[in-house]
Amino acid sequence: MPYKHLRDKRAYDRRYRRENIMSRHRDRAHLANRRYGSPKLIAADVAAVFANRANCYYCDAPVDSWSGTLEHIDAALGNSPSNLTVACPPCNNGKNNRPKSIWLKRLATRGIRHEDLPDSMPVQRRML
Ligand SMILES: [Zn+2]
């Protein structure tokens, strides 16, 4: 443990994430392009999606641009801008290729109602 205090590590992590966020967005764009083909995304497209959201689209869990995942709401619509949002990793992995309605039903069985969530408008953005 090279850090004397945990706060030193946290400060290092924050700085690392701030300085490397675009390469993370570039990776996300690359994976989305490989999986969905066109239209092609670049890192700035992904950054714009993440800039609009600080919470998971499905369950409202807080996510930041480092921990969140790029979500394609309808797998058939691919990379079109209106189809992109941010989800927490459990929602993105759990939903997989299923339609949004199926995933929301599953969340509802766990007591999460999408209707109660704030709209997909920008939420107070958490600073990295
Ligand atoms: Zn979620």
What can you see in these coordinates?
By secondary structure, this protein is mostly helical. The chain has a single domain (6-113), classed as DNA Binding (I), subunit A (Orthogonal Bundle), CATH 1.10.30. The protein is built from 4 helices and 2 strands; from the N terminus they run ααββαα. It has helices at 6-36, 43-51, 89-95, 100-109, and strands at residues 69-72, 84-87. Strands 1-2 form a two-stranded antiparallel ribbon. Helix 1 (6-36) crosses helix 2 (43-51). 20% of the residues are buried. Residues 120-128 have low confidence and may be disordered.
Give a quick precis of the structure.
This protein has 128 residues and is mainly α.
Mean pLDDT: 87
**Helix percentage range:** 40-55%
Give the total of domains: 1
How many strand elements? 2
